[in-house]
Design a protein that fits this description.
The complex is a heterodimer of chains A (284) and B (456). Chain A has 284 residues and is mainly α. In chain A, helix 1 crosses helix 13 and helix 7 packs antiparallel against helix 10. Classes of the chains: A mainly alpha (284), B alpha+beta (456).
């Protein structure tokens, strides 16, 4: 009896200790976010950042959030980013699934060389491609539209590579069986392989979403019209010449700009963790 | 039969997805809301220019995040220019500071705009993409370079694609400078005399030393000096060398540049910074320790290498305009020294309306625009007449700023935005953090910078 009592007591103490440790970790992790929201409400933080950091603003005010939403530019940039991101994700993921399947299961001449070409695109960073791509879209008279933001994302070496690797793990016998039943390539892909590609499709959607949503340099170069600005461009419009920024405004901007990513994360938490594990790539 | 239906479904699905994507992308047509249609009447009928501007400019009115006052949008400038030039149309491409070099390069390569605000004029002029402005200046009898604050035109001179002589490719649009700022209250609390107009290293060091410790009136810990150990530390050090009649080196074109990063003056300057570190708060290498600067609780007496954008408007917004003082950076025996900074305005060689572009350049450097960008956006004017404006007189701190703008080292350091700057910065950091001796750090900076120039 006594033994059971002491066991229960031990368990309770262990639970309390675990809870306290987790609570400390939770507070440590949450503190920067809470501080970020708090500084956003601090009217004086644009002149000098509150130091030492304080949770309650010295002069509480909605001023910074008012500036963030001024002239409706943030809402517009949210809409613009959504259009670009949704389009990029739909086209990029669809094309990559098809291409990944073709590279994995397809039998055609030059497959290996073509795949190497696709892999090579992974090795060329955006910077050297910037001017040639810009010139190309300029000649096509497509600058200052969403097309230059969406069209290049259709062919993503990374997504095609991920897809191919995934389809490689699925047995060829599925394809052969379907062929014996008289199914064509599209039917095999859509009826047999696509239903099995849920995890990789979710991974690709998340990666493509984060890449497209956060992309800064390319949209900066191809978009001139403030009406077409995406969220990262809008955020950058508050940066100062010396690379610094105004504390209160920056924190208010950061708070509102991470909302979509936080919401996405809440809904797709399991897939995001899986996507990082599968691809080894984190959204930047 | 079923196979046929399935094929149709698949085709329909793919078509719908593609249509949806293209519909989304295309739902906003090629747009240019700030652009206007050409006008058919007036002296400049049908002529149109596109002007690129960098910074926090906005077409619409907006709230100033520091003062809280409403700043008028650039539409005012557009309307005035179009009123002064009947029939002409000006459109703006407004861009942030972040990534401006890449965007400018892309735009100018494809002839996207006629006029550019271009801090990197020295990098673009050798590409042959900029219009030399000397012929335009000579041709235009109404225009004179005398309107600009001394040294501002020289500072932006650059080498063209074929020339060995510096030429004018840009005219000063926004001014900028570096100076030493100080807190008069702390000087008063400590009973220390304010710095002289052109202080020496010895004077600053002595005063910084005197004011480090517990403030005799408030009992708070005070620090005599602060300087940024990252980002701008290369310029701080070069100014220190210039203050001893030294120099960063010689040459302007890359094939003629010779660095003197390990000269005795540079070494003395770096040792001075190491000494000053004792009188500065911790964290200068990571841009920290100055959190209370420009607040009523400020604890730093002297701030090296400060700029007007970070000092003047915030000081007045905090009600500390009278408490802050500004004196020149360290100068050589000729009275010159320190970083030349700002933004010039240039005309693209590919511009199809160069006459109108030149009109814009003149307009942008006129009192109307200079005053407008100062009053609405806090941008520093580059014209002499600014000292007479009421809005400037209301901010007496602007007067030493204009003085400081007259005496920087010109032309602009050719390596100021290139790898040698970051090599030198990194080695200063290494010295400040104790990872290398001052001598070794400068020798390494000299070697690596020289190799970089030779291999570029």
């Amino acid at each position: 009896m006594n033994n059971t009592m002491s066991m229960k007591k031990m368990e309770r103490i262990t639970s309390i200790i675990k809870f306290l440790i987790l609570l400390i970790f939770g507070v440590v992790l949450m503190a920067p976010f809470i501080w970020m929201v708090s500084v956003g409400f601090d009217r004086t933080a644009n002149i000098s950042m509150p130091f030492p950091p304080r949770l309650i603003p010295e002069e509480p005010s909605k001023f910074n959030y008012g500036i963030v939403f001024e002239n409706g530019r943030l809402i517009k940039s949210y809409i613009n980013s959504t259009i670009v991101t949704v389009s990029s994700v739909i086209l990029g993921v669809s094309a990559s699934l098809l291409a990944g399947y073709a590279f994995s299961k397809g039998k055609f001449k030059g497959k290996k060389i073509l795949f190497i070409v696709v892999l090579c695109t992974l090795m060329i960073p955006m910077e050297p491609r910037l001017i040639p791509l810009y010139t190309l879209f300029n000649k096509m008279n497509l600058l200052n539209t969403y097309y230059p933001l969406v069209l290049p994302s259709i062919i993503s070496g990374m997504l095609i590579f991920l897809c191919k690797q995934f389809f490689d793990q699925l047995p060829d016998t599925l394809r052969e069986a379907a062929q014996i039943d008289g199914a064509g390539e599209f039917k095999i892909f859509f009826r047999v392989y696509l239903p099995l590609a849920g995890p990789i499709a979710a991974t690709m959607v998340i990666l493509a979403f984060i890449w497209s949503w956060n992309d800064f340099m390319w949209p900066l170069v191809v978009l001139n019209d403030l009406e077409l600005q995406t969220v990262p461009l809008y955020l950058a419009s508050f940066s100062l010449e010396n690379g610094s920024s105004l504390g209160g405004l920056t924190m208010a901007l950061a708070t509102v700009s991470i909302l979509p990513i936080v919401i996405l994360y809440l809904f797709l938490q399991r897939y995001i963790i899986q996507s990082i594990a599968l691809s080894g790539v984190k959204g930047e | 039969m079923r196979r046929g239906i399935y094929k149709k479904k698949v085709t329909l699905f793919i078509t719908m997805m593609l249509l949806l994507s293209f519909a989304l992308v295309g739902c906003v047509p090629k747009s240019n809301s700030s652009s206007s249609t050409s006008k058919t009447e007036g002296k400049w009928a049908g002529q149109k220019i596109k002007v690129q501007m960098i910074g926090d400019f906005s077409m619409q009115d907006k709230t100033d995040p520091v003062t809280g006052e409403t700043a008028k949008g650039m539409k005012v400038v557009k309307e005035e220019f179009e009123k002064q030039h009947p029939g002409a149309t000006v459109d703006f491409v407004l861009m942030p500071w972040e990534g401006y070099t890449e965007k400018t390069q892309a735009m100018i390569t494809s002839g996207e705009a006629d006029v550019y605000q271009m801090p990197g004029v020295a990098d673009f002029a050798p590409q042959g993409v900029l219009e030399p402005l000397q012929p335009w200046i000579e041709k235009d009898k109404e225009f004179s370079l005398d309107i600009f604050i001394d040294n501002q035109v020289d500072g932006w001179e650059a080498l063209g694609p074929d020339s060995k002589e510096l030429d004018i490719f840009g005219l000063p649009f926004l001014g900028d400078t570096r100076f030493i700022a100080y807190d008069k209250k702390l000087f008063d609390d400590w009973g220390v005399e304010y710095p002289s107009e052109n202080p020496t290293m010895e004077e600053i060091a002595e005063k910084a030393k005197q004011m480090t410790g517990k403030n005799p009136k408030t009992g708070e810990q005070n620090y005599g000096i602060w300087f940024r150990g990252d980002w701008s530390s290369a310029f701080t050090l070069v100014d220190l060398a210039e203050g001893q009649n030294g120099t960063w080196g010689t040459g302007f074109a890359w094939d003629e540049v010779k660095f003197s990063f390990d000269s005795p003056e540079m070494l003395n300057g770096l040792n001075w910074l190491l000494e000053m570190q004792k009188y500065a708060p911790k964290g200068i290498v990571s841009n920290q320790g100055n959190e209370k600067w420009l607040s009523k609780d400020n604890n730093i007496a002297i701030m090296l290498n400060q700029g007007p954008g970070d000092t003047v408007k915030p000081a007045y917004a905090q009600g500390l305009g009278d408490r802050i003082g500004i004196v020149n950076e360290f100068k050589n025996d000729e009275g010159r020294g320190g970083l030349f900074a700002g933004s010039p305005i240039t005309i693209a060689k590919s511009s199809k309306n160069k006459e109108l572009a030149w009109e814009w350049v003149k307009f942008a450097t006129s009192d109307f625009v200079q005053k407008f960008v100062f009053e609405e956006y806090g941008a520093i004017p580059a014209v002499k007449s600014a000292t007479e404006w009421d809005s400037v007189k209301e901010m007496p701190l602007m007067l030493p700023v204009f003085k400081a703008m007259e005496t920087p080292m010109t032309p602009r350091y050719p390596w100021g935005s290139s790898q040698p700057r970051f090599i030198l910065t990194s080695e200063i950091e290494a010295a400040l953090t104790g990872n290398r001796s001052a001598e070794d750090a400068l020798k390494k900076a000299q070697k690596e910078s020289t190799e970089w120039v030779e291999n570029r």
